[in-house]
Design goal:
InterPro entries: Cyt_P450 (IPR001128), Cyt_P450_B (IPR002397), Cyt_P450_CS (IPR017972), Cyt_P450_sf (IPR036396). Belongs to the cytochrome P450 family. The chain is built from 15 helices and 13 strands. It has 392 residues and is α+β, with helices and mostly antiparallel strands. 48% of the residues lie in helices and 9% in strands. It has a six-stranded mixed β-sheet with strand order 1-2-3-11-8-4, covered by helices on one side. A three-stranded antiparallel β-sheet has the order 5-13-12.
Length: 392
Amino acid sequence: MIARSYPFGPVEGLDLHPTYAELRAEEPLARVKLPYGEEGWLLTRYDDVRLALSDPRFSLAQAAVRDTPRMGPTRIGAILTDLDPPDHTRLRRLLAHAFTVRRVEGLRATAQRVAGDLLDEMEKAGPPADLLTAFAIPLPGLMVCDLLGVPYDDRDHFQSLAEAFMSTTAMTDDEKLSKLGELAGYLAGLADQRRAHQEDDLISALVVAQEEGDRLTAEELVQLTVLLLGAGYDSTASHIVNSVHTLLTFPDQADLLRSQPELMPGAVEELLRWIPGQEIADILPRYALEDVELSGGTVRAGEPVLLAKPAANRDPRQFPDPDRFDVTRNAKGHLAFGHGPHHCIGAQLARMDVQVALTALLERFPDLRLEGDVKWRTGMAMRGPLALPVTW
């Protein structure tokens, strides 16, 4: 079988390339070739992607020792995403001691205050405004800094470091590794401070996290913090601005949320389902440890699979009329945060940030609308605009 060149090609805004729908209908197990690494299988159906996310017959740890399908010449992994159970289970359990629902919900009032302050500044400056730099980036940046215990004054510096974490081709490998090394050094110093003087933040909680006498090593703590900061900062900022763009593109849905704010939690799930957050499906290739039967055929032991979660979230077998954006839809079960052992541990924080951001924005600016053309960034793991010009 001749492998298709992947990614398939440029798309406009938050559209999905039409090839995904074609493959989902006709070739759900499609052979693809990325710019670097070996060929792999692209999964586009909901049931197949969900199974590969949770079935122990698919391994993330194998990717650390294989020539993985990827966009750049060098593979750069991360601690939680390079492990299978039981090693992954140990680290995730230790992290869960610090990343509790109580801790996240305790930040909601802070998020509401921060969102209000940012909108005050935006309103004072007057329209037009770039919603990305004025609101979508600083809100999750401030919240992640607050959660971890990173000083607010460092947020601009951390924005650039988070972009390095999420870069696929926008930076060279040397640039990316340099920025990640700088971030790791800073966080190691912060962890040393917390060992001497604990505070009410996540790094302090990670310093003391213990499970049956087992603690995080200094290196594990830094790597986990880098992962949480990078993924939680850039991906949430991207989702906030993409959500606003979507609501302004479908003003009837925005009006429905203004008139029925109780719909917001479900609307955020629908936004997570409908928006194709990931640019491509190469971030976390998994390797079959044995032959696995999927809807499109057999993946042989030792072969990698790439999971097209945005395509799976538009599978009509799971979500009727899937291309329609509907804030009243029951979108539970979407795969935006993954599924199974590697389900995003920061999902609740991201949900809370987006709920607070959209609620505050819709209440403050009932006449909010797009102002001018929107240009979209490329070479990053997450889709999103370079700027979102708005007026009111």
